[in-house]
Write a structure and sequence with these properties.
This protein is an alpha/beta fold. The protein has helices at about 5-15, 75-85, 100-105, 110-125, 140-150, 160, 180-190, 195, and strands at about 35, 45-50, 60-65, 90-95, 130-135. The protein has one domain (about 40-155, about 165-190): Rossmann fold (3-Layer(aba) Sandwich). It has 8 helices and 5 strands. A 5-stranded mixed sheet has the order 1-2-4-3-5, sandwiched between helices. About 30% of the residues are buried.
Length: about 200
């Protein structure tokens, strides 16, 4: 590593917004279903939601959902939990280390490290389809998710030749995600052609 320790390398990559955890064959048996605390981060932690229909021999899609400023993981989980149960995908919602995500206030760092830990936790326990990984969020969480998606886009073949497909929807009402918008996002996720999502 040219004199660079693994810890130093991890810090450098975190500051660049680079996620390192990758799906693999689970090493731990995790029979639990439902909304489970990650138990990684003390007071600000997070949740994973595993649908009742999850089967360890069938890799499942994974959605990482990020909460808005001043919120917490439970808020993010609530947006898609019912749909995840119906559609059969695993949902992970980590808490930011502070009141909002680090890069919103300056630069990447501790939140990237914690999201990586949350993903590693999930990948150790649940079979995740590497061709079906999505990150999304609400408000500040959506901004952070967008920046992470672009910054880690090399997991998708050149993000469709750098011609990203963007679907923008405005809606009236309070600062929340309407059910029909959440449902539309999941329907889009289910129909994205497989070749766009295959890792290099």
């Amino acid at each position: 590593m040219n004199g660079m320790t693994a810890t130093r390398l991890n810090t450098v990559l975190a500051r660049q917004g680079r996620l390192q955890a990758r799906p693999r064959l689970p090493k731990l048996d995790a029979p639990q279903r439902g909304a489970l605390p990650l138990e990684l981060g003390g007071k600000r932690d997070g949740f994973v939601y595993v649908p009742e229909g999850y089967r360890s021999g069938q890799p499942t899609p994974l959605v990482v959902m990020l909460h808005g400023a001043g919120g917490h993981a439970r808020h993010a989980l609530d947006i898609l939990e019912a749909i995840a149960g119906t559609e059969g995908f695993v949902l992970v919602a980590p808490d930011s280390r502070g009141m909002t995500w680090d890069a919103i206030r300056g630069e990447y760092g501790p939140d990237i490290t914690f999201i990586d830990q949350a993903l590693a936790w999930v990948f150790e326990r649940y079979a995740v389809d590497p061709a079906r990984l999505v990150i999304g969020g609400f408000s500040d969480g959506a901004s952070y998710a967008l920046s992470l998606g672009i910054g880690n886009g090399d997991l998708v073949p050149r993000l469709k030749g750098a011609g990203y497909t963007v679907r923008y929807r405005e809606f009236d009402g309070p600062h929340t995600v309407p059910d029909e918008i959440a449902r539309e996002a999941v329907e889009w996720f289910k129909t994205v052609p497989q070749p766009l999502l295959q890792p290099r």
